[in-house]
Design brief:
Blueprint lengths: L2 E6 L3 H7 L8 E7 L3 H11 L3 E3 L1 H5 L6 E4 L6 H10 L3 E5 L6 H14 L3 E4 L6 H11 L6 E9 L19 H17 L4 E9 L1 E10 L5 E7 L8 E5 L2 E5 L8 E6 L3 E6 L8 H13 L9 H18 L13
Amino acid sequence: MTVRWGVVGPGRIARNVAADFVHVPDAELTAVASRSKERAQAFAAEFGITSVHDYRTILEDPDVDVLYLATPHPQHRAMALAAIRAGKHLLVEKAFTVTPEATREIAAAAAEHGVFVMEAMWTRFQPAIVRLRELVADGAIGEVSAVQADLGAKQNAAPEDRFFNPALGGGALFDLTVYPISFAQMILGTPASVHAHGLVEGVDVEESVLLGYPGGRSATLFTSLRCQSPGMARVVGTDGWIEVPPRFHHPSRLVVTRHGAGTEELSLPPVGAGYSHELAEVTSCILAGRVESRVMPLADTVAVQDIMAAVADQLGLQVQEGPADLEH
C-alpha cells in the first residue's frame, strides 16, 4: 500500500521537504494546495505532482491520505481542524501553532476523529539524535544533569519579511527557540520552572531561556535572529557528556565523552536532506493504523507549546493566533 501525500503551503520549507520523498518507501507526493494557483502550479511542475488545489478542494480529494501543513504558524489551526474533520492525517510544521490552546484543540479533534497528527520536529528523527536518546537511556553518561543549546540565525531580511511580521508568527520563538526547547523537553521532560530574558523589537529577535527541573537539573538555551551562533547542543551527565555538533537540529554526528574512557565520535548522517526520516515515521504509523508517533507524541508538542507560551508571556509578546474557521 502507498500512502498518498498532499502539501499545503508550497513555500521554501515545503520545497525542501518535497525533495526528500524520493527516499521514503510507500509514500507518494500526489497533490499540492495554495491560495495562489500560480504558485501551486509551479510547485506541481517542479515535483511532478498531478493534482493542484486550493485549501478547500484538497480536503475533498479522495486520493490524498495525509497532508503536510507548511503554512505560516498562525494559519495552522484552521487548516488542521478542517483537515481532521475531513478525515485527513496530518504532519504539521513546527511550531505546531502559536498558542497552547490551539494545540490542545487540534489534539482533541484528532483524538475525536481518530486520525494521525504529528508535529514536524525533524530533529527527533535524525539518526544522530535517535542514537543520542539510546545512549542516554542506556546510561552511557550517567544521570543527566543539564542540557545546553544555542541556535542563532542572523537574518538580513527586510522588515516586512515573515520573520519580522507578528501576524505571520514572526520572531525567534516559533522558528528557532522551538528547537532547543523541544530538544530539552525530549531529554529532561516538562520543566518545573521557565525563566526568559530577551530583546523584543516588534517581534522577539533574541532570547535566553532557563528551564528548571527537580533535583537541580536545568536547560540553558539561547536563540537569535540578529546573531549567528554555532548551533550546538550538549547533554551533560554524571559520568560524561554528549556533544551534538553544529547544527544540532539536523546533525550528522555525535561526540561522546565518558569519564575515564576517552572520547568517541559517531558518524550518523541523515538520508537525503534529513526530512525523509519524519516522512517515513508518518508513513509507517499510518500504514500501521497508529494515530500518534511514539517518538513525537502530541503530549510532547503540548508541553513544548506551554513552555513557549511562558516565554512569550515573560517577554511581553502579543501572540496572534489564527482563526479556527478556514473561511476566515
